[in-house]
Amino acid sequence: MKDPNFVAKVDLLNLLLTDDLFKNDDSLILDECVAFMIASTNATSLLISNTIYYLTQFEKEGHLAKIREEFERVFKRKSFKDITTEQWLELLNYETMNEMHYFSNCISETLRVDTPPISFGIQLLEPIEVMGYKISDAHQVLINIHALHHNEDEW
Question: What value does the mean pLDDT of the chain take?
Fold first, then answer.
């Protein structure tokens, strides 16, 4: 960052290195990065487990069959029983994943139903007005993601 040719990017490390709380504390930055990695690993494993659970619990609706058909169409294979790890790594890439709309929608629906962060708090940088309510920047605001994702007016 001290290099005159440095180009700032919007990523976790750059955010930490420019934040007054973290920028001069390598130990705190390391702790935050480790916590981020643990949280993201936990959220990903929860997402995978929950998606598999819902696909098996609602098998009568045909979601799993539609995903299998999509896999066969996108990967141009009828069977995946004897596929190697190396073959999966070749098949699973950005382009093929973008072709799997139904599978992606199943994952998105799982994230909507089982939100990894149920809620989180934010500190406002300036006062705001929301739907006629004035909220001071002295107050912490709690965002209830779980309630938003289960709002029948929205979903």
Answer: 89
Q: What is the pTM of this model?
A: 0.67
Phi, psi of 46 (to 5 degrees): -65, -40
Closest CA to 73 of 106, 103, 109: 103
Specify the DSSP element, H or E, that contains 17: helix 12-18
Whether the predicted pLDDT of 125 surpasses 90: no
Q: Is residue 122 within 8 Å of 143, Cβ to Cβ?
A: yes
Structure confidence by residue, pLDDT tens digits, 83-121: 999 999 989 899 999 999 999 999 999 988 888 777 888
For residue 134, give every residue at least 6 positions away whose Cβ sits within 8 Å of its Cβ, in sequence order, or none. 127, 128
User: What tokens were used for 26?
Assistant: 């390598």
Which tokens is 137 given?
A: 């920047």
Tokens describing residue 124: 């406002």
Q: Are 116 and 43 in contact (CB under 8 A)?
A: yes
Structure tokens at 148: 């938003």
